[in-house]
Input
Amino acid sequence: MKSTIALFITVIFSCVSTYAQEESTITSAEITFNFESKDVNGSIAGFNSESKINLNDITQSKFKGSVSAETLKTGNFLRDWHLKGNKYFNVDKYPKIAFESTQVIEGKDGFTVIGTLTLKGVSKTMSIDFMKKESTLVGAATLFSSDFGITIKDEKADNEVSITMTLKLSP
Output
C-alpha cells in the first residue's frame, strides 16, 4: 500500500513538474518602432505582461501585455513632448497601450499572434509575426497610427509604423 501511495505521489509531482516546464512567461521586452514616412525611430518601455507561453504547443499560448505611453522616446525631447500631448498619444488620458491575443497560429518558420491592440482608446485587430530564438521571441508588425487617431500626415500610407519587439522568456 505504501509503495502504491508513493508511486501515486511521484506521478502527480511529475505531472505538475512537466506542466510547469511547458509554460513560460515574458520577463522583459524591448519594443522599438519606426514612423516610415518621417524615418523617425523610437522605443517604448514600461512593459507589463500577463502572458502565458506554452512552448510545447504555441497555439495554446495567451499573449497579454501593456506598455506605458509616457515612456515613448524618439531621441528628440521636444518631439517626444509633442507626441505625448493631446494631439497625438494624449498620455494623460490614455496612459497605457495594451495588447491581448485572440488566436495564435503556428507557421512553418514561426508563429503569428492575432489579437486586439488598444491605443488612445481605440481597439483594432492586429497580427504580430514571431520567431523563437533560444529563450527569446522576436516579433514584427505594421500598423497605421491614423487608425488609432494619431495622424502624423494626411495620407494613410504616410502614417505607417513598423514595430519590432524582443521578448525575453522565463527559463
In short: Residues 4-21 have pLDDT under 50 and may be disordered.
